């Protein structure tokens, strides 16, 4: 299923762009090695998320590719649960790029909550991604569904 979205500004915490002294290299700089140890190798992926608004739709996780529970990724933060959903993204180039929806479970996430219409995408570096740009997600509806709220 193809879902149309728009790139929106995120918190900047995943990439380290927010200037949070707890995460100078970003939260992903700390999390990606842990995910690799757990079996999800994201080597070559950009150390930040692409935040995509799919409004008026909202994502509803169904069956993740993988879920990691009780991940203690920083000594000053409570453990979190994370799920990943394999997708493809298509920007202006039209070439689909394998990616993942990165889903820190809202019930275990202590801060930096997303708008309920936004999904966070982990992908290799995609040239010319910018705020306001349209982006298409190719999603298996058995993995994640998108519904009007």
Describe the protein's architecture and organization.
With 149 residues, the protein is mainly β. The protein has a single domain (2-127), classed as Elongation Factor Tu (Ef-tu), domain 3. It has one helix at 27-38, and strands at 2-8, 50-53, 57-61, 66-71, 80-90, 97-104, 118-122, 134-139, 144-148. Strand 4 (66-71) and strand 5 form a beta hairpin. The model has no long low-confidence stretch (mean pLDDT 87).
Question: Topology, please?
Answer:
Blueprint: E1 2-8, H1 27-38, E2 50-53, E3 57-61, E4 66-71, E5 80-90, E6 97-104, E7 118-122, E8 134-139, E9 144-148
Antiparallel strand pairs: 1-2, 1-8, 2-7, 3-9, 4-5, 5-6, 5-8, 6-7
Please provide a brief summary of the model:
The chain is mainly beta and 149 residues long.
Q: Biggest sheet: strands side by side, in what order? A: 1-2-7-6-5-8
Q: Could you name the ranges where pLDDT drops below 50 across 5 or more consecutive residues? A: none
Order of helices and strands: EHEEEEEEEE
Structural class: mainly beta
CATH class: Mainly Beta
The domain tally reads: 1
**Ends apart, CA distance between termini:** 18 Å
Number of helices: 1
Total beta strands: 9
Provide the CATH topology.
Elongation Factor Tu (Ef-tu), domain 3
Helix content: under 10%
Mean pLDDT reading = 87
Computed over alpha carbons, the radius of gyration is 14 Å
Largest sheet report: 6 strands, antiparallel, barrel
Q: Let me know the CATH homologous superfamily.
A: Riboflavin kinase-like
- Note the beta-strand portion: 35-45%
CATH architecture: Beta Barrel
Q: Which geometry do the CA atoms define?
A: globular
């Amino acid at each position: 299923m193809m879902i149309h979205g728009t790139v929106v500004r995120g918190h900047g915490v995943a990439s380290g762009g927010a200037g949070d002294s707890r995460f100078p290299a970003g939260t992903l700089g700390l999390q990606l090695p842990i995910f690799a140890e757990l079996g999800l190798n994201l080597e070559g992926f950009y150390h930040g998320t692409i935040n995509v608004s799919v409004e008026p739709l909202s994502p509803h996780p169904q069956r993740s590719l993988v879920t990691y529970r009780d991940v203690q990724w920083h000594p000053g933060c409570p453990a979190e649960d994370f799920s990943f959903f394999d997708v493809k993204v298509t920007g202006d180039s039209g070439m689909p790029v394998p990616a993942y929806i990165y889903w820190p479970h809202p019930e275990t996430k202590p801060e930096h909550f997303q708008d309920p219409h936004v999904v966070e995408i982990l992908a290799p570096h995609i040239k010319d991604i910018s705020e306001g740009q349209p982006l298409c997600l190719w999603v298996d509806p058995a993995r994640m569904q998108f519904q009007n709220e």
